[in-house]
Amino acid sequence: MQFELTRLPVTEQPGGCVAVGVFASHALAPSAKLLDKASDGAITAAVKAGDIAGKVGDTLLLRGLPGIAAERVLLVGCGKAGELNEGAYQRIVAAAAAAVGKLHAAEAALYLTELAVTGHDEAWRVRTAVAAADHALYRFTEYKREPGRRHLKTLAIGCGGKQAKALDAALRQGQAIAAGVKLTRDLGNQPANVCTPTYLAEQAQALAKAHGLDIEVLDEPQMRELGMGALLAVARGSRQPPKLIVLKHLRGKAKAAPVVLVGKGVTFDSGGISIKPGAGMDEMKFDMCGAASVLGTLKVAAELDLPINLIGVIPASENLPDGNAIKPGDIVKTMAGKTVEILNTDAEGRLLLCDALTYAERFKPDAIVDIATLTGACVVSLGNHAHGLLGNDQKLIDALLAAGRTAHDRAWQLPLWDDYKEQLKSPFADLPNVAGREAGTITAAAFLSAFTEKQRWAHLDIAGTAWKSGKDKSATGRPVGLLVQYLLDRVGG
Ligand code: BES
Ligand code: MN
Ligand code: ZN
Questions:
Q1: How far is the CA of 488 from the centre of ligand 3 (A)?
Q2: What is the CATH number of the domain that holds 7?
C-alpha cells in the first residue's frame, strides 16, 4: 500500500472515500463536523437516525453527500468522547482501513490523526495509523488461484500543517514498520514445505542484498566445528539441513556494543519422537515466527538507517521424527560445554536457542533479546494479548515493557526467580531440557538463563502472539512493533 500525508481540508480531499470519526455520544470529531457543515447536516442526520452507534470500530458508509470532493464518506465509531488509549486508536484506524479496502476505490483518505491519544503526539498518531492501516489491509494470497482484486492503491493520512518534518519522518517510520511487519507475516504464513531453514537463509540473503547488510550463513559442518551439539541434535530428525543465519546492521558508533536479537527458527515443529497430537499441528509451521520477527526488525532498522549496531542470529531447523532423530533420554553437549538430557524432544526451541545464545556472546553485546514461540504454557497464561517477558536485567525488561506499551505490542513480565531454576535437575546431565508441567514458560526461560549468565539478556515468549488461529489464521507480525520501538527509544528517535 502506498501512503501519503494530506493537508487538504477534508471537504476538498478528492478520491473514493474520506474516513472521519464519530463518538458514541453522537458528538463529531473535527473533520466530521467540517463535512457535516459542507453537506448541510448529512452526517448529523445519519448519526441522529441511529445508523451508527459510535462504538470503537463501528463503520457507516455514506455516498453522494453534497458539497464535498470525495465520492464517499466513511463514519468510524470512536467510542466515548475524550482521549483514547493506544489500543482503541489502532482499532479505529484498522476498522476504517478495512472498510475502505472493501470499496471499489483506488484512493482514499483517513482523517483520524486528529483524535487525541493519551500520552502521544501527532507524529505517533501518523506513524501508528500507517502501520495499523497496512496491517488491516494485509492478505496472504500467494497460493490462491483467485486472490480477489484489491482496488485500493493509495491511502492518504490527513494531518495538521505544523511540524512538517516530524510528520514526514513519522510517515517514513510507519511505512518502514509496515514493511517489516509484512515481511514477518509473509514468512510466517509460508507453508513449511516452502519455508525450510534453507529458504529462511535465502530470504535473509535477499534482505542483506537489498539493504547492504553483512550476512553469514553457517552450515552443519561449521556448527559442528563450534560444538553446537544441542542445535544439531534437533536437526538430526530432518532431511533439511539446519542453518545458523547471522545478519548485521552496523550503523552505530564503531565501538558501540551491539544489540543482538536471537530468533527461534523451527520451520516445522512436529514434536519429534515426542510427537505432538494431530489436531492443529499445521500451526507449527509458525514455529519460526521469532526468526521472522528478527528479519522484519532488521529490515525496519535498515530502511530507517537507524544509527545502531544491530545483529540478528537465527538458528533454523525442522523438528521431525526419524530413525536418526534424538530420543527421550539422549544426552548432548552444548556449545557452552554444559550437557543436556533431552527428556522431551518437543522442547526443541531451547536446544536451538542455547547454542545461538552462546554464539551471540562473541559480539560482546550490550543486550541480547531472544524471541521464540517457546511454550504452550505461555498461551495458557497470557492468551493472545501479551508476550511473555523474562530476563536477568530489570532495566532491559523495563525498556522492553515500555516499548511494548508505546507500540501497543505489549509484553508482560513473569518472574525468573532462583526457586524456578531449582526445578531444572537431571540425574545424568548438567541440565534436563524440561522440568515438569508447572510454570512451563518460566522453566523454559530458566533453562535459557543458564546460557546467558554473562550477558544482559531478555526473552520474549511469543507462542500466543505470533499468529492468530481460527478462520482468520495468519501470522501477526508481532513483536516487530515492540522491537522497533525499543530500538527507536535507544537512539532517541
Ligand atoms: N513450539 C512449541 C511451543 C508452542 C506450542 C507454541 C503451542 C505455540 C503453540 C514448543 O517447541 C513446544 O513444543 N513446547 C512444549 C514444551 C514442553 C514439551 C516442555 C510445550 O509447550 O508443550
Ligand atoms: Mn516443540
Ligand atoms: Zn517449537
A1: 30
A2: 3.40.220.10
Which ranges in 51-196 belong to alpha helices (H)? 86-101, 122-137, 164-189
Record the cell numbers describing residue 109, joined without a space: 483518505
Is residue 174 situated within a structural domain?
no
pLDDT of residue 493: 74
Question: Would the pTM count as exceeding 0.90?
Answer: yes
Other beta carbons within 10 angstroms of residue 364's beta carbon come to 11
Which one-letter DSSP state was computed for residue 29?
-
Predicted confidence band of residue 269 (pLDDT cuts 50, 70, 90): very high
Q: Which domain does 286 fall in, by range?
A: 181-491
What's the gap in Å between 270 CA and the centre of ligand 2?
7
Looking up residue 309, the CATH number of its domain turns out to be 3.40.630.10
Taking CA atoms only, the protein residue closest to ligand 1 atom 9 is: 376
What is the tens place of the pLDDT at every residue in 173-198?
999 999 999 999 999 999 999 999 99
Q: Confirm whether 373 is domain-assigned.
A: yes
Same domain, residue pair 22 and 115: yes
- In the chain, count of helices (H) and strands (E)? 15, 20
Spatial CA neighbour of 10 closest among 168, 456, 19, 1 = 19
Report the C-alpha gap between 174 and 117 in whole angstroms.
Answer: 17
The four Cα atoms 7, 8, 9, 11 give a dihedral, to 10 degrees, of -140
Ligand 1 atom at minimum distance from 344 CA: 18
Q: Which uninterrupted H or E stretch holds 271?
A: none
Same domain, 113 and 186: no
Looking at ligand 1, which atom is closest to the CA of residue 375? 21
Whether 257 lines ligand 1, by a CB cut-off of 6 Å, is no
Pocket test for ligand 1, best of 266, 346, 433 (most atoms within 8 A of CB): 346
Ligand 1 atom nearest residue 349's Cα: 11
**Domain count within the chain:** 2
Q: Are residues 279 and 346 in the same domain?
A: yes
The rounded distance, in Å, linking the Cα atoms of 465 and 475 is 9
Cα–Cα dist 288/470, whole Å = 19
Cα 277 to middle of ligand 2, angstroms: 11
Active-site residues, by number, are 276, 350
CA of 157 to the centre of ligand 1 (A): 41
Of 225, 239, 461, 194, the C-alpha closest to 350 is 461
The best mutation among 375, 448, 462, 476 to test binding of ligand 1, ranked by most ligand atoms within 8 Å of the C-beta, falls on: 375
The tens digit of pLDDT for each residue in 85-121 reads 999 999 999 999 999 999 999 999 999 999 999 999 9
Which string of DSSP letters, residue by residue, matches 290-310?
A: HHHHHHHHHHHHHHTT-SSEE
Candidates 161, 164, 186, 170; CA nearest to 132 is: 170
